[in-house]
Design a protein that fits this description.
Number of domains: 3
Number of strands: 10
Strand order of the largest sheet: 2-1-3-4-5
CATH topology of the largest domain: Hypothetical protein af1432
Number of helices: 16
CATH class of the largest domain: Mainly Alpha
Largest sheet: 5 strands, parallel
Structural class: alpha/beta
Distance between the termini: 44 Å
CATH architecture of the largest domain: Orthogonal Bundle
CATH superfamily of the largest domain: Hypothetical protein af1432
Strand content: 5-15%
């Protein structure tokens, strides 16, 4: 497979020279400036190597390559610079932003040697990444299989929580979900140290004795001890350690930690057959203020089949397509609109006109069409 190389420079003549000298050796893409470079990365990436000029209008090469590093960490980054820019270029190398830099004008053979070295470096990074991914997945599979044998209840809970976390992440547009997937799967791995009768009681909503509760709450620490032996698992270990039923802490939670704990809490309520509406209101009080975006995505996952999300809106914000979850009475207890009615254009106009004279409620419980939430 021909290596893919992106060259970004606002000098059109230099780009033309590059195309003539390098197009037969590499799958070469050129971009006349950082904006075109970002578009090329989006449409044609990832690239094995990105070579950028230092001085460009709008955003300089250092900032451009830092963004490349953020979006495509495996891509090797190189820089062109003039003699007067050596100090800035060396700083970029020392900060880890670039693999090599070349001064202008630069012979084609030197560029080729540098690009070949960058491509080899990219292959090494990808090979290491693949090796680690395979090792990681193998270790995780062994642990999860052991949990399934020792404690099927805990294994099933981990699988349910993982599915919920991934669904919420997808709704939120989170691209890299590996950490969430692993944290969900392994959130219950510490249950190998918890007697099954305690697990059974806890997952059925029964009250644990103080001694049983202490044993149960230890499971996150056990998980951290087990998982800390696996390379590159620190972020997952830290996330699993944030389970609110294992630790007493009032410190702010990250978005990932809110997704995990909200999924765990919902699973608790679902397993003891709490009605969905009741469960949602209980969870709303606890989690909506901590991260409104996560809670919104969670509601969309739960109610995606029905197409409606329960909520409260101001009377003035009612609009066609919403369905009333409550009767609307005036101050004299006269029924104005009944629960279950879909709000129409005419109804909106009528309610707006009646609001002041008839003292209608300010907030109304409604079912909001999911499409409205998605475009809000």
């Amino acid at each position: 497979m021909t290596p893919k190389v992106l060259i970004v420079d606002d000098d059109k003549n230099l780009l033309d020279t590059m195309r003539r000298g390098l197009c037969r050796r590499y799958e070469l893409v050129t971009a006349a400036g950082p904006e075109e470079g970002f578009q090329a990365l989006k449409d044609q990436g990832p690239f094995a190597v990105v070579l950028s000029d230092l001085r460009m209008p709008g955003i300089d090469g250092v900032r451009f390559l830092e963004k490349v590093k953020e979006l495509y960490p495996a891509t090797v980054r190189m820089m062109f610079t003039g003699h007067g820019d050596l100090e800035a270029a060396m700083a970029a190398v020392n900060e880890g932003s670039v693999f090599r830099f070349m001064t202008k004008p630069c012979p084609v053979e030197i560029i080729i040697r540098s690009l070949d070295a960058g491509i080899e470096q990219n292959k090494l990074v990808l090979a290491e990444k693949e090796l680690l991914r395979g090792t990681l997945r193998g270790c995780v599979k062994v642990l999860v299989d052991v949990l399934n044998l020792v404690n099927p209840e805990a294994f099933s809970r981990g699988e349910r929580v993982k599915r919920m976390m991934l669904a919420v992440a997808k709704r939120m547009g989170i691209a890299n979900t590996l950490k969430l997937e692993l944290a969900g799967m392994l959130s219950q791995i510490g249950m190998v140290a918890v007697p099954q009768e305690i697990v059974f009681k806890r997952f059925r909503g029964a009250k644990l004795s103080p001694e049983e509760d202490q044993i149960y709450r230890f499971h996150a620490s056990v998980a951290a001890t087990l998982l800390s032996q696996i390379p590159r698992m620190k972020d997952v270990v830290d996330l699993i350690g944030c389970q609110k039923d294992c630790v007493d802490q009032d410190s702010p939670l990250s978005t990932d930690a809110v997704i995990l704990n909200l999924s765990l809490d919902y699973d608790d309520l679902e397993q003891i057959d709490i009605a969905t509406d009741t469960a949602i209101e209980d969870l709303r009080r606890k989690w909506e203020s901590k991260d409104p975006r996560v809670f919104k995505a969670f509601l969309e996952v739960i109610f995606s089949e029905s197409g409606y999300i329960p909520g409260s809106v101001k009377l003035k914000d009612l609009h066609p397509g919403m369905i009333l979850k409550q009767d609307i009475f005036d101050e004299g207890k006269m029924l104005i609109m009944a629960k279950g009615q879909e709000v129409s254009d005419v109804a909106c106009i009528r309610l707006m006109r009646m609001q002041e004279s008839f003292k209608l409620p300010v907030m109304i419980s409604v079912l909001i069409p999911l499409a409205d939430k998605e475009t809000a």
